[in-house]
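User: Sequence in, structure out. Go.
Assistant: Echoing your sequence, followed by the structure tokens.
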Amino acid sequence: MTFILIKIVDGSDGDKVKKQLLEAKTLIGTVHSIVSDQGSDLVNGLKKLVDEQRMLKETPSKIFKDISHASSHIFKERLLSDPNWQEFLGCCGKTQPQVKQTILGSLAPPTQKVKGRYLNIGEMITWGQKMLAQIDDRTGKLPDKVDRTQLEKKYSWIGRFRNSMKEWEELHRIREASMAYLRSAGYHALAASTLRSKLSSLRSCPASQRMVDQIVELGHEQSSELEFGDSIPASTEVLESLIGKGKQMLGQHSRGGFTKMVIGMGAALARVTEEKIVQSLEAVREFDLRTWASRNLGTTLTSIRRAVLNGTKIT
């Protein structure tokens, strides 16, 4: 992975994304392909970029969908069409506060995420299967202080979703298998046919059959224009991992704003050697860093806090 450009903005929309993409384009030249997680600002900005390329009679960049987000959307469609899924989530939501302050709180349903919940829904399905196994195995050993009578009183409702959970697990395995393959192979001319071959054995019900068809259709849609021998990355997860690394370096400030440490995201991609460190220190002065931060970060939330609370005794 090569670091091209980082821009700090107050908000993101199509015009800002287009401007950033054009700035990145001036640094690297022709952009053959772009992989996007299909966020609304990215979709809008990419459309504006392609429209401008066509207007200038340039070869437009090809836009590809990130397989993690695209398959999550398909997974979400399948689950939302199942009324049992909404009932299951409702039961989880009611049970969580009931057991939160008790010994059974350690077995509570996972907290549902506000954003991207269907990217991590496998955790909820796995929890349900394991709790169902505990309810079914009346002779099994429970953790210390966990009373079986209380366990069954609070979690016996899981048994109503026994058949549904088998179906949901099948959908989850189809999504995981498709992502595992495309993360490695990327989009390519034979992606759709290979996906169908790999996923066919995983489907055994109408819902999973439909999901396989949708995943294969997605693979065809994304790879139909690729020449034999060409391969395009199908995932933006390496970028999201870098963003996570950046938040880790920012520490407690990651929730409230950026600091000069954001530049460390670029450094995290470098192969660090003694020679590279010397070259970097000689090429970039502290003055350069402060100037960049002043122009791009402006007044940070941390500096505002220091200014306001400076000299104030907090009791």
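User: And one key feature?
Assistant: The chain has a mean pLDDT of 88.
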